[in-house]
Amino acid sequence: MTEIRGAALPFDIDRALDDQILAVMQNRPTVVLTEALDPRTIEAACHLSRFARLVFLADEAAVRAVQHEQLPHLDATRVAYTFQNAAFIEPASRPDLLDEFVAEYLSLPAELRRADLPQEARELLSEPAHFGIMCVRCGHADTVVGGLTHEPRQYFRPMLRLLRVNKVMCEAGIFVLPPDHPSDIFPHNIVVFGDVGVNATMTPETLARIAVGTCAVARDLFPEDVLPTINGAIVSYSHKGSDEGPSPELVRRATALVPEILAERVALGERYSTIHIEGEVKISTALSRRSAMYYQPAEGSPGGTNVIIAPNLDLGNLLFHLYATRYPEAKKFPVMFGVRFKGVDLPMDSSAQDVMLAVKASLLRHHKFGHWTRTPKDTFFPRPRILAINPGSTSTKISVYEGDLECFTKELQHSAAEMAPFESRPITEQAGFRKQAVLAALAEHDLALADLDAVAGRGGLVRPIPHGTYAVNERMLADLRAAVGGEHASNLGALIADELCRGTPLPAFIVDPVVVDEVWGKAKITGFKSVRRLVISHALNQIATAQRFAQEHETFYERINVVVCHMGGGITVGAHRRGRYIDVNNGLNGEGPFTPQRSGTVPTGQLIDLCFSGQYTKAELKLLNKGRGGLIDLLGTADLREVEKRIAGGDEWAALVFDAMAYQIAKHIAMLLPAFQNEPVDGILLTGGMARSADLVATIRSYIPAYCGLVAVYPGENEMAALVQGALRVLNGKEKARTYDPEARP
Question: Do residues 438 and 455 lie in contact, with contact meaning Cβ atoms separated by under 8 Å?
């Protein structure tokens, strides 16, 4: 138990699973829900979309009807987000999959089948339970979930037969007991039972493998700072040779096999070296500290027993259900061992929370084991192959993604000799040359244009437009060639994408260029009638970061209020109010906090005096404003790491400048609060390269009041992923591609 202000609190298994999954998750597994019309399944699903791609084996309208009639208490935004990101499949509607499943099923050995004729097999596999199992077996999904409404012979046993990986399988029952359970028995009130559901026949080797497997499950789920050692006890009515009979003999022989089997497990992961298993322990000794005092006063597992291995299925099942009945408020769920996380079996009396925890536990083990990277087939969630292009002044960065999974990223460097023909020419004339460089790089990875589904180029200095993904059109290309917003390497993004896609079915997009402008008119007015604030910002990363925050909280960009602070060579602080980017400083021209290279906003009167002092030329002042200002002018370096080294070495001036920059960033964040018109702010999001500095983030946090919302950190530029995500939202039907027509903007 955890002590806070003198009160004992149970271990927070929900938070622990969430944090561990997010720490290791690179992709989301596909999870098939076979009992899609059970309200417990639907409620649990509404808390799982962040971690998994969900497939409901039912008609969408039917699922929505159950939610509407039986789960009106669920948050409407969470429900909408879950359903928008899920797939709904009725088995009968997919004859292609049924054909595949029947062929696979009939090819299996006779002992694994329950049908021998094609029509019999088709009828069997059309049932949601078997259909879901075969989805996993054939690589269309990663995990199947069932048991709430199916008898064991309908789901559990077929799942074991068809998805088995290990020689011995078992089912662990996980409990986090409530505060009314005596807190001095199990550390943190955590106890794991095994086997609770699989092995009706027990041999010494089976029992030894169950012991190791159950302890391995516990190690996978509970961090070492919570349970430093997993202490397993194979229980018996005999204690250390105190009695005789077949059961104690079985336990003794199993205990002798444990070290070798445990060594095999440790070879798969060093974390398993913290498992300790003791054999032939009287059950009362494992369950009661008082009994342990009498039976083994000088022994005992260090830190207390937390895994109890039963010598037969009846006892394991009895313990699981006895504790479930005695402590109905316990957090409890089963976890399979031996099917490589492919199946989740649920007791019929599971709550929605039990379902959620069981699925999360399986997902965590998917990621921790290290063998899984993505669903083998993209049947339910297509993975379009997208090329992202981000041109620089002397390089072109490209990435290829399949869905949201990166395949490769490469920066194509253009030598001085290659760039010489374009010297003193409009930068847009390089589009054809760079197109050929991109094609050559694709060929190095055995890819051609025919292998792609879309191309997304970095948006350039077009005319001001609302945020979104835009289809490249002739008006956009003309504005870029005319440099209506100025010459910049990003102008090449749309041109290269168009060059690649022209004459092919491939769509070409740009996503959230720097000139995205949804800022209120009142925010552009200054005290000079002839001066209006311009809007140029890191729109791509600003909006992508806000989108990511929304997804992590299982909601939509259109339903959140956040301030995003992009901290790089330039700094932009933007207000995002319910899907609109309503205010932001002009980071390109030095407005806002001072940065590693830019002066930031400076006192107007002093600036005017400086302009006419004769001390600087116009060009020199412009360079101080953007390029040689900020940290470069103050400290002689734009490298924040160098500044931190100086501070660590006792440089007081560097420390003051560092603190001043953090203070100015926090001040500009707070200055945007009026933009939300007294609505709550959901979060302050720090991103960009400088967000990697723990000291800078901590200093900014120290200046932000608690009422501003939580502070979340997303280090890096994330530009390539942002381009891909913009294209994906269009290809997946979540957004419509916008048409570039500046005069038609609202």
Answer: no
Q: Is the dihedral of CA 144, 147, 150, 154 positive or negative?
A: positive
Instruction: Name the packing angle between helices 719-731 and 539-552 (round to 10°).
Output: 70
What are 173-182's pLDDT values in tens digits? Answer: 999 998 877 7
Here the tokens at position 44 are: 């649990």
Gap between the Cα atoms of 333 and 339, Å rounded:
17
Q: Are strands 683-688 and 561-567 parallel, antiparallel or unpaired?
A: parallel
Q: Which residues fall within 8 angstroms of residue 417, CB to CB, at 6 or more apart?
A: none
407: helix, strand or coil: strand
Report the distance separating Cα 649 and Cα 653, nearest Å.
Answer: 11
With contact defined as beta carbons under 8 Å apart, do 534 and 592 qualify? no
User: Cα–Cα distance between 696 and 666 in angstroms, integer?
Assistant: 11
**For residue 583, is the peptide bond before it cis, meaning its omega torsion is within 30 degrees of 0?**
no
Strand order in the sheet with 385-391: 405-413, 395-402, 385-391, 454-458, 508-511, 469-471, 738-739
Tell me the CA distances in angstroms from 326 to 157, 180, 185, 330, one per residue in order: 28, 11, 16, 9
- What's the pTM value of the predicted model, to 2 decimals? 0.89
How many Å is the maximal CA-CA distance in the chain? 103
Task: Please provide the distance, in angstroms rounded to a whole number, between the alpha carbons at the two ends of the chain.
Answer: 57
In 3-state terms, what secondary structure has residue 34? Answer: coil
CB proximity list for 337: less than 8 A, separation 6 or greater:
166, 169, 170, 171, 172, 194, 213, 214, 216, 217
For residue 4, name the pLDDT band (cuts at 50, 70, 90).
Answer: very low
What does DSSP say about strands 307-309 and 230-236: parallel, antiparallel, or unpaired?
parallel
Structure tokens given for 678 = 């007294």
How confident is the model over 281-332, as pLDDT tens digits? 988 887 776 666 666 655 544 447 899 999 999 999 999 999 999 999 999 9
Report CA 364 to chain centroid distance, whole Å.
Answer: 12
Q: 318 CB contacts (<8 Å, ≥6 apart)?
A: none
What is the distance between the alpha carbons of residues 579 and 673, in angstroms, rounded to a whole number?
16
- Alpha helices, H only, 269-373: 283-287, 289-295, 313-326, 352-369
